[in-house]
Amino acid sequence: MAGAGLWWSAGAAPTPPEVLRLGAPDAPAGTASGATPVAATGVEKLEKFKGAEPKPMAPLSFIDAEGRRVDLADFKDRVILLNLWATWCGPCVKEMPSLDRLQAQLGGEAFEVVALSLDRGGRAAVEPFYRKTGVEHLRVFLDPASESMKALSLRGLPTTILIDPEGRELGRVEGAVEWDAPEVVAFLRQHLGHGGGRGGGPARDRGGMMKTGG
Prior knowledge:
The protein is α+β, with helices and mostly antiparallel strands and about 210 residues long. Helix content is about 20%, strand content about 20%. It has four helices and ten strands, in the order E-E-E-E-E-H-E-H-E-H-E-E-E-H. The strands form two sheets. The chain has an eight-stranded mixed sheet with strand order 1-10-9-5-6-7-3-4, covered by helices on one side. A hairpin with a 5-residue loop joins strand 9 (about 160-165) and strand 10 (about 170-175). Mean pLDDT is about 75; it is low at about 5-45 and about 195-214.
């Protein structure tokens, strides 16, 4: 797979990731302070998802750009790529444009990229970042209290979790990935059970972000 991340099945022992460690001093966007060395990966890593045993996920709540409560369970019946990130995390910033492009390609009734910001600054931190980087297809979801860190047993950022329509974890990747790389898109299309384009839903409005790291 393109990018610096590592997929593993939900039940497999994780390999040391390239992530910005949680609890480390905040680093300016675009830097890799606190990150472990990049682990090169290939498309063959995606094969581990085939036949992977779904893993139950803990309940998780966060808010949208308007401050309304959102539950992870609200996305039932849709495949979700849940990305935990922050504006102060260099690897997160690097992969955000590709997540936006992935949502533009596949987003709809059957699939959504849910980018959940752990920025303590909330919407005031995320919206300027979205505007600056040209993010147009991702909705704004915020976790200013960083409750997802404990609920999802995060080891670092970015962490991206693939969730099936029943709300179960199929696997996760730690580290930046080129999410709209052809082999990644092809894998996700196979997982969705269709071979083309958008899932048919409307384009999502651009939203803001928040900050839990600084």
